[in-house]
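This section describes the prediction task in plain terms. A model, or a person checking by hand, is given the sequence of a single protein chain and must write out its three-dimensional structure as a string of tokens. No templates, partner chains or ligands are provided. The sample shown here is typical of the held-out split.
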Amino acid sequence: TLGVISKVCMKVHTKPTTCDVAVLSCPDFSSVMKLKERVEVGLGGLVSALEIMDRRVLELVRERTSTSVPWELGSPYYVLVETMGFDPENDGRLLESFFEDCFSSGIATDGIVAQDSKQRSQIWGARESCGPAVNSANRSWKYDLSAPLSHWASLTDSVQNKIGEKGSCVIWGHLGDRNIHLNIVSDLDEDLGELIEV
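The expected answer:
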């Protein structure tokens, strides 16, 4: 059967006038979960992206791609927060208050905020290079799991314990919608999938 479209209704949104990109360092995965909750409460409708990268995948980005990571890798987890809005003064206040809350509560130990479009591109470049960095390994295994966030730390630790020094287990992806990628990378020819999937 053929359908004929007789009418189309489109809603066009006004382009935001502000855009801020920041990266926060988290000391453990429970802090990542708390940060996600505070983002939803403190920044609400301003958030346009919420991404997670662990230190191991960012080390791969530095080692295996030409992309720079414009912050120190001293923490196990990093959360990228992008906000967009229409009120520069108020949006800036909300972001500043959010940062102060994260630091004072200890769920973030460090952070950077892009000062211009070039720095925003550098931060996003690190995030977008996670996939190519994983693909550059001799062998890689990729999983998108639907486990609750509270299980991710123990899950990655379990996988890393299984593969030992034969490879590295990394996580990165969309924290906002819980679409997080668990990848295993190795420069060996051995099939580590047999270790992981038992």
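For orientation: The beta strands are 18-26, 47-54, 77-85, 110-113, 139-144, 168-174, 179-186.
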